[in-house]
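User: Round two. Same drill as before: sequence, then structure, for each protein.

Assistant: Same drill it is. First protein:
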Amino acid sequence: MSWLADTRSSVAAEKILDAAAELFVRDGVATVGMNEIAKAAGCSRATLYRYFENREALHIAYVHREAGSITGKVATAVAGVDDPTERLVEAMLISLQLVRENPALSAWFRPGEYFGGSLGLHSEVINAMVSAFVAADGVTTETHLKAKWYVRVIISLLAHPEDNPEDERTLITEFVAPLLASDVNPTSAAPARSGGSATQRAR
């Protein structure tokens, strides 16, 4: 992987995050250090630290990127669901599904990993994820706090999934969605798509 061809910082940063993702899947998030990431990305440690000052900064950037990608897919999948509570339920369930189906994301929730342990609810990581999940316009303090809860519920279910998928749906439908549906908007500005359920459209 050559760094001479990179003309923009974003391109170089993406290469680093892509290399880190492969290591997270292969070796686990907790064991991957900056030395390993630099080697896998084909750059020097000095170059790596130019873009990410430490491992935590790299983790936050990675989470932010992946959360944004998931949000876009979820928004498209639930665009045709009119009821706000039902839309939020489907959005949360699809978010869980997309993370679990993606090896580079599900690696973060293996037992003992970054999100599986005490660092899973680190405020900086939560803030990075919230920025991807909350609608850009009309965000109030209450909305932001509810969005944090939205993300924390998803993290909790990923780290400690229910044995029965229907139990997850029930928990979200009865105890989470009614309180969040009026403020949190993970589906703004998404084009409607016809055919199939919201979960099927997310695949």
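Second protein:
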Amino acid sequence: MIEVYMLRLDERKAAALYPVMLKYVSESKREAVRRFRRPIDAYRSLTGEILARLAICKRWQLSNNELSFCKNEFGKPLLDNATIDCEFNVSHSGDWVVCAFGDCPVGIDVELMKPQDLSIAERFFAPVEYEMLMSLAGSRQLTYFYQLWTLKESYIKAVGKGMSIPLDSFSFLIKEDGEVAASLEAGASAAYFMQTFADDDHALALCTFQQTEPIFKELDYEELESLLSMLQ
């Protein structure tokens, strides 16, 4: 089963909860968070790890002090010395922080759909994707760009090899009904995709290697503060 926690950022509420959340992460994470120049970036990063810790503690009945994170050679965050099938992935952009978790590899990406120079698509997208993108006009073109981008990010994050997988070595077609057709690189494992929107301004995509309907749960700050007691 794949679950997704979602939190819409509120800068005022995040600032109030910031010192509390800092207590529940490692010293190295605290140092990393404090290096951000903009408070909102610190809130996003810290909240992402807190969502991951809450998800893991609740799903796998672990205590927070048992959790230690590491990264693989490509930079994917992992649970260190895990004796359980625990997979998670975090993303944050604009107003949203999201965390997907389950017992098989999972990747998630959320992106604020801000204006973008679409020439980047010619560099990174497969020719068939770029052709489809260029056939669209107006706001639909920008939306489709972010739909493709989040799908690609979710896939390389699920695989755990980051940008070592060329983004033009696999492609997606998003059909009118929202169904995602994927053409993956040679030798790739079967993967399953969902492309949706967190709201009108944020695209979101999920990739997993388990064919299952993900369960989404949107938290608010009152719920988040209440759940923090699990990490004590």
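Residues 174 and 180 are 5 Å apart (CA to CA).

User: Perfect.
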